[in-house]
Design a protein that fits this description.
By secondary structure, the protein is mostly beta strands. It has two domains: 232 residues, Cathepsin D, subunit A, domain 1 (Beta Barrel), CATH 2.40.70.10; 149 residues. The strands form four sheets. The chain has a six-stranded mixed β-barrel. Strand 2 and strand 3 form a beta hairpin. The chain is globular.
């Protein structure tokens, strides 16, 4: 799903149901991957170590990598750890209070044009900051892209603009402009789209309210168009070779959870011997929204998606008891085995099996950070007749390799965007 293609999409932007999670955290063991799961060895030319741990704020079910950021064309660089990997959003975004010490050039709206900022809205809040230009490298794999537009969230130079309603922010919802509020030092959005807004933000369309801004001065920012080259891009799409998608590969996690777990983030699909599609089943996404359909207990949810940036599986089920203290999560008396059927834009259907445990029991293991059976309700679901979401988050990734192909690329005869597993 691309943010802000239509007003409805801003209500359910992929990638930050993660922030709806509770704390979590003890000691445990990781169940070995099943014999059919092959996890690529981290290292050059295209595999990055992916780590699930408590991160900078003590969270759960958040997968991290490190990213090296450099002033363009120089060796003036800073490596930032605990960057969340999110297959449900687009673009590299760094929190200014990491602390981020580089002075990156400002991205402008055209040559000699005004500096640009952006408000990125998620399901549970929003982040605002300036747009900058950087060279980026994934230090383990060596994958590299130059002159990339990135967002510096919480950039103190640019206060959040005031909305059209007196006293309201133009970047609505709970502000996630600090590491503490965001739950990570940044986010690497490697979702199914090449830019974070696409044609909906470009001329000749009128500027979308509350997305991109031109700033004549730091305190006078107004809604603006942004061409595809001015928008925050999917960094993977800018790599020289492995640029058509990613594979998130995480081992299985036992029912009690575990302290930490590691796997691999593989760049490219079908570009090397270690990233073949193999026997994975492809689910083509709607090319405008990125949605697939998830049918669960007889109800078809047209806004289905698979999202590593969500720390649980989030869906609507009134038969599951909700938690008392772990607000927003499910707390059934015993672990429930559930299943949905996923279908893309073709006739192919694929079972999605998952389990739902008592979240409060899981969180009582005070040092555990990885849970395969954490689930909760959808926060702020859009009102009918808009499509109701069904979100398979990071728990769904444990024990199977999940592919996300970027739009405009053909892999094994199927055009992206698509999910596969």
């Amino acid at each position: 799903m691309r943010k802000s293609v239509a007003p409805a999409l801003a209500l359910i932007q992929l990638g930050f149901l993660a922030a709806c999670g509770g704390g979590g955290y003890g000691r445990g063991t990781t169940t070995p991957p099943p014999p059919t799961q092959m996890i690529a060895t981290p290292g050059p030319p295209n595999v990055e170590t992916l780590t699930v741990d408590a991160g900078p704020t003590g969270g759960v079910n958040t997968a991290f990598v490190s990213v090296q950021i450099c002033v363009p064309g120089t060796m003036t660089c800073q490596t930032i750890d605990h960057i969340e990997v999110d297959t449900g959003s687009t673009g590299l975004r760094i929190l200014a209070d990491v602390p981020f010490t580089l002075t990156l050039p400002q991205a402008t709206n055209g040559s000699g044009g005004p500096p640009m900022t952006e408000c990125l809205q998620f399901a549970d809040g929003s982040s605002y900051g300036s747009l900058r230009v950087a060279d980026i490298t994934l230090p383990g794999s060596g994958e590299h892209a130059a002159n990339v537009v990135v967002q510096l969230i919480g950039d103190s130079t640019y206060p959040v603009p005031t909305g059209t309603i007196t006293g309201q922010s133009a970047c609505p919802g709970i502000a996630e402009n600090s590491v503490q509020a965001f739950g990570a030092n940044g986010i690497l959005g490697v979702g199914p789209f090449a830019q974070d807004c696409g044609g909906g933000c470009a001329a000749p369309n009128p500027p979308l309210a509350g997305v991109y801004y031109n700033c004549a001065s730091p305190s006078t920012c107004v809604d603006a168009n942004a061409s595809l080259t001015q928008q925050v891009p999917n960094p993977v799409s800018l790599f020289a070779t492995d640029n058509n998608g990613v594979i998130v590969e995480l081992p299985a996690v036992g029912s009690a959870g575990t302290t930490t777990t590691t796997g691999s983030l593989v760049f490219g699909i079908g570009t090397r011997t270690n990233n073949a599609l193999g026997m994975a089943t492809v689910l083509p996404e709607d090319p405008n929204s990125g949605y697939i359909t998830a049918t669960y207990k007889g109800i078809a949810y047209a806004a289905g998606y698979i999202d590593s940036g969500s720390n649980g599986n989030f869906f609507t089920d009134s038969s599951l008891t909700q938690c008392t203290t772990a607000t927003g999560f499910y707390c059934p008396a015993s672990t429930m085995s559930e299943s949905a059927t996923l279908q893309g834009t073709t006739a192919t259907m694929l079972a999605a099996d998952f389990s739902v445990a008592n979240a409060e029991t899981l969180f009582s293991n005070a040092s555990y950070t990885a849970f395969s059976n954490l689930a909760g309700t959808i926060p702020n679901p859009p009102p009918p007749p808009q499509a109701q979401p069904f979100d398979l988050g990071l728990p769904f990734f444990y024990g199977q390799n999940v592919f996300t192909a970027i739009e405009g690329n053909t892999v094994s005869g199927t055009m992206g965007p698509f999910f596969a597993y």
